[in-house]
Design goal:
It holds the Pfam family Ank_2. This protein starts with a helix and ends with a helix. With 163 residues, it is an all-alpha fold. Helices cover 52% and strands 0% of the residues. The protein is globular. It has helices spanning 3-23, 36-40, 45-51, 55-63, 78-83, 89-96, 111-117, 123-132, 146-149, 153-160.
Length: 163
């Protein structure tokens, strides 16, 4: 199987898995409530607000003192979570509120890596991260850059060719 096809398949599986995990979270529940299995994994109400694309809740939680860069046990910050989703509004809100762009998950991936590798429609999210100053030359613990892990041609072009 060609490398690009493997990456596409991996991205699809990761997006499905994320949806499966998040499917356990009732969408009608307030952003402050988390099912026990997510809370035990280190996810926060801010992560939940990001998953729901609830910009008002994101702003309210941060203004009330929620740690904007608190990572889950796997190192997933709310900004990493926002980078997994095609809609850039939550990501832009987190950036405007001061989220750090270069925090890394347990694999050494920044939110830009996550957008390039996992997001099913990454272009708007990658554009927002790059506009905010994300490092397109960052290297993960496997020696890869975001441009090397991306699988959508338009996203790869954004990462390879600075504007």
């Amino acid at each position: 199987m060609p490398q690009r096809a493997r990456r596409a398949a991996l991205g699809a599986v990761m997006a499905w898995a994320l949806g499966w995990v998040l499917g356990f979270m009732p969408l009608a529940a307030p952003a402050q409530e988390l099912p026990d299995h997510l809370a035990r994994a280190g996810f926060t109400p801010l992560h939940a607000a990001v998953w729901r694309h609830d910009v008002a809740a994101i702003q309210r939680l941060v203004q009330q003192g929620a740690p904007i860069d608190r990572a889950s046990d796997a190192g997933i910050t709310p900004l990493h979570s926002a980078a997994m989703q095609p809609q850039p509004e939550a990501l832009r809100a987190l950036i405007a509120l001061g989220a750090k762009l270069e925090l890394r998950d347990r694999h050494g991936r920044t939110p830009l890596f996550v957008a390039a590798e996992v997001n099913p429609e990454p272009q708007a999210v990658i554009e927002a991260l790059l506009a905010a100053g994300a490092d397109r030359g960052a290297v993960d613990r496997f020696g890869k850059t975001p441009a090397q892990v991306c699988w959508k041609p338009a996203a790869c072009d954004l990462l390879r060719h600075p504007a």
